[in-house]
């Protein structure tokens, strides 16, 4: 899909000009990279290079594996077109065959299918980036984004991902994860993206408790100082939170009289409607 820069900006595929930063860590936790074998090793290599393209030596260091083992794995993946090599830098990137396989994930995504009519009704909201986000490992990942803004909101496009303790979408997804996952996540070193990012585990536990109680999250300046976001959970027939609906906007919008309440009302209503279409029933 070709993305055109205009006042109305929609994105359902990654954009080449977004300036997407290299992630700071793999999306999926690798418990013991040095013990990886066979298919697990191939998956770890793909995960690492998806996070940040690199050379064989970079993968060797990151996974603590012998150079010959990593080289053999990468060559096999390149031959199968799961990876491609940049001849100028010798760095390996995700290849076309893996993209083809991955694109099928969104093409048949149950949440996106259910959300489509409700996202269309929200598309005319001025100054808002509308996102559908899901949890993959330690990250919240944007699987849909649409912007109707005069000035592009950076880091709000399809494909961006952030640690779960950052932004309202991460709080919604982390708050509704299994208690054991939450505790293991909070036991890790937590990255501070801005001075407003909450990284204290005890403070985060309080935030997550509030999100579970209210079914809503609002954060300001914790990913980008100029931006704010609000999110609500999307639930499936079993009541499990399978995604978050998120609005991202410039924080000065919150100063407009009545705007926050209106945004929250539309957000929560849309998230509930999507959940109902997925089979969720309140109180079940």
From TrEMBL:
Residues 36-96 form the HTH iclR-type domain. GO terms for biological process: negative regulation of DNA-templated transcription. InterPro entries: GAF-like_dom_sf (IPR029016), HTH_MetabolicPath_Reg (IPR050707), Tscrpt_reg_IclR_C (IPR014757), Tscrpt_reg_IclR_N (IPR005471), WH-like_DNA-bd_sf (IPR036388), WH_DNA-bd_sf (IPR036390). Residues 97-280 form the IclR-ED domain. It holds the Pfam family IclR_C. One of its GO terms (molecular function) is DNA-binding transcription factor activity. Gene3D superfamilies: 3.30.450.40, Winged helix-like DNA-binding domain superfamily/Winged helix DNA-binding domain (1.10.10.10). Residues 1-10 have a biased composition (Basic residues). SUPFAM superfamilies: GAF domain-like, Winged helix' DNA-binding domain. Keywords: DNA-binding, Transcription, Transcription regulation. Residues 1-34 are annotated as: Disordered. This is HTH-type transcriptional repressor AllR. It comes from Methylobacterium dankookense. The gene is allR.
């Amino acid at each position: 899909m070709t993305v055109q820069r205009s006042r109305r900006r929609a994105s359902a595929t990654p954009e080449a000009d977004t300036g997407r930063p290299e992630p700071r860590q793999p999306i999926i936790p690798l418990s013991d990279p040095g013990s990886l074998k066979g298919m697990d090793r191939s998956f770890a290599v793909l995960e690492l290079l998806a996070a940040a393209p690199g050379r064989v030596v970079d993968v060797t260091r990151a996974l603590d594996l012998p150079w010959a083992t990593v080289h053999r794995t990468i060559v096999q993946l390149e031959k199968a077109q799961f990876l491609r090599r940049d001849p100028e830098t010798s760095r390996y990137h995700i290849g076309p065959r893996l993209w083809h396989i991955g694109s099928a994930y969104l093409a048949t995504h149950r949440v996106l299918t259910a959300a489509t009519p409700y996202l269309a009704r929200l598309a005319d909201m001025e100054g808002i980036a509308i996102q559908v986000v899901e949890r993959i490992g330690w990250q919240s990942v944007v699987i849909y984004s649409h912007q109707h803004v005069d000035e592009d909101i950076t880091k709000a496009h399809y494909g961006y991902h952030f640690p779960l303790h950052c932004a309202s979408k991460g709080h919604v997804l982390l708050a509704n994860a299994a208690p054991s996952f939450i505790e293991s996540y909070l036991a890790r070193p937590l990255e501070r993206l801005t001075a407003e990012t909450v990284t204290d585990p005890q403070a985060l536990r309080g935030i997550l408790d509030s999100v579970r109680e209210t079914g809503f999250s609002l954060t300001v300046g914790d990913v980008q100082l100029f931006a704010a976001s609000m999110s609500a959970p999307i639930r499936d027939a079993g009541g499990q939170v399978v995604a978050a609906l998120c609005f991202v906007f410039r924080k000065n919008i919150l100063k407009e009289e009545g705007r926050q309440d209106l945004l929250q009302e539309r957000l929560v209503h849309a998230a509930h409607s999507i959940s109902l279409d997925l089979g969720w029933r309140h109180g079940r």
